[in-house]
Amino acid sequence: MARIKCKIKYDGSEFSGFQVQPQNRTVQGVLESVLKEMHKGAEIRLQASGRTDTGVHAIGQVIHFDSPFDIPEKNWKRALNTLLPDDIYIQEVTKVSDEFHARYSVKEKEYHYYVWNAEEPDIFKRNYSFYFPYQLDIDKMLEACRYLEGTHDFTTFSSAKSTIKGEKIRTLFHASCKKQGNEVEFIFRGSGFLYNMVRIMVSVLLDVGQGRRKPTDIIDLLAKKDRQLAGKTISPQGLYLWNVKYEAD
Predict the structure, then answer these.
(1) What does the pLDDT look like over 4-44, one tens digit per residue?
(2) How far is CA 221 from the centre of its chain?
(3) At a CB cut-off of 8 Å and minimum separation 6, what does 240 contact?
(4) Which of 96, 124, 139 delimits the end of a domain?
(5) pLDDT per position as a tens digit, 66-95
(6) Which residues are catalytic?
(7) Do residues 117 and 215 both lie within one domain?
(8) What is the separation, in whole angstroms, between the first and last Cα of the chain?
(9) Domain with 27 in it: what CATH number?
(10) How many CA atoms lie within 13 A of 127 on its CB side?
(11) Which residue segment(s) compose the domain that 182 sits in?
């Protein structure tokens, strides 16, 4: 058996998230259907670096699967992309050792979130950014980002529906935002992320940008470990799983 690692990108607009769901179109469901076709009806289960929700996109998602086929990497890529729909694309295929695991071998993940910050919406960006027509203080938001960096209990910034067991301590190596034209880009790199964590952090940072919160409020929010203090979970459309790093990278 060969273990195959794939770096993939997808437009999440027409998917009900990554994970297989009965009756719904999902990224995993489409990928496993293609693998089943390639393997003459045999079920091939894949593992991913993590799941993405409905409407969330990926630039650098990573999956792995085991196959009895001995196929050159470039042929794997060509065969998969020939069978896949236009909203999923295999960027890179690598044969890896059995010790590699797309989820458990992760060392760092990077997410980007895009906000369309203009008076008028751009209908062509409606599936790829969050429309937010209010004035923002980018410097205040950057200051707040610095308080998010480091190792903290991120309970306040995790969905109350999260099924994770155990502590919610994570390390954020980098948190930042910048505005170019009418678009604000948030970047987060960390050891791992809780369910809805990025979308909740962006929601709070936009509150800071509007002056509804102070940058130092982040310290208090982290300390209180109370999801209800952080406000709503922002729209998934602006969120991208940007990159996943492993020990060998």
Answers:
(1) 999 999 999 999 999 999 899 999 999 999 999 999 999 99
(2) 23
(3) 56, 57, 58, 59, 111, 112, 113, 114
(4) 96
(5) 999 999 999 999 999 999 999 999 999 999
(6) 53
(7) yes
(8) 23
(9) 3.30.70.580
(10) 10
(11) 107-246
